[in-house]
Design brief:
Elements lengths: L9 H11 L4 E2 H11 L4 H17 L3 E3 L4 E4 L5 H4 L3 H12 L9 H8 L24
Antiparallel strand pairs: 1-3, 2-3
């Protein structure tokens, strides 16, 4: 008798599929199998694919491999699937420390450089100061 997958989450269905599958599977094929088992309509498939991908990424039972193929994490050693995030963050920090002056207007350049164009203005609170006392208002 076929199992009823309609009341299960899509990632739980994917886990069941991968548990029975001998190895890794392409994302598109995995999603199509999940959609088939949960009897999704085409409209529902279109609406669900991005959420399914996100949930698959966040679920610790799954691992993404080369060419957008997916498998169960329990089948792979740590060193095969581990991504060193320190190397990624170093690249981001290097890229963000370089400001492209051509892309910034004068105000952005001044903020980036810490300069203040209006050195005589005293307080820059966003209001016009005509120099008169507030007692007149």
């Amino acid at each position: 008798m076929a199992e009823n997958y309609k009341n299960e989450s899509l990632v739980d269905v994917a886990y069941s599929i991968l548990k029975d599958h001998p190895g890794e599977i392409a994302f598109r094929d995995l999603f199509n199998l999940v959609a088939e088992k949960t009897e999704m309509t085409m409209d529902r498939k279109d609406a669900a694919i991005s959420g399914f991908f996100t949930n698959l990424c966040l679920d610790g039972r799954f691992v993404t491999l080369k060419n957008n193929e997916w498998d169960l994490r329990e089948r792979h050693t740590f060193d095969k699937v581990h991504v060193d995030l320190n190397a990624i963050y170093e690249d981001i920090e290097e890229d963000s420390s370089i400001a492209d002056d051509d892309m910034m207007d004068e105000d952005e350049k001044n903020l980036h450089l810490g300069d203040d164009d209006d050195e005589n203005s005293g307080s820059d609170n966003g209001y016009y100061d005509d120099g008169e006392s507030s007692e007149n208002y």
